[in-house]
Amino acid sequence: MGMPKALVRGEDGEPWLVRGVRTLTEGGCAQVTVVLGAAAEDALPLLDGTGATAVVAADWEDGMSASLCAGLTAAAGTDADAVVVSLVDLPDVGADVVRRLLEPPPDGATLRRASYDGRPGHPVVIGRDHWAAVAAETSGDRGARTYLDSHDAQLVECVDLAPGRDVDHR
Predict the structure, then answer these.
(1) In terms of pTM, does the model score above 0.85?
(2) Distance between CA atoms of 140 and 8, rounded to whole angstroms?
(3) What's the CATH code of the domain at 93?
């Protein structure tokens, strides 16, 4: 993208970061914690007025696993039973996808991921029972994919709501 994706603005001028927070909130997430990395100091002011909190992954250059682990560590200090992991570069994924993933309400054992025409994608719902194992098994730029695959995460078809493609180029 030529810049940190948290700073990218959509055609309407709204930052993807703000849109992502709104999507999660409107989708049913009671609390939204944003994990920032590159240009965190530039992204933080964008969160003003969104109700979201921020965590900075100091080791963000290590890949998406650093962000995932920072988010799970932050969640461990709450009473949440599960987290919804989403990406800022999914501008076509709306609150309806998040709502579908949160039905039925997740518990500590939940492992769900959005699927688009059978292709696993994001968002992902990870119950508290899995957080430590996910953090232990992720490294580099892999995220939780291997863990989700090996633990039979429930696929929730969402292609009728969005294509679910991440955007890597302008």
Answers:
(1) yes
(2) 23
(3) 3.90.550.10
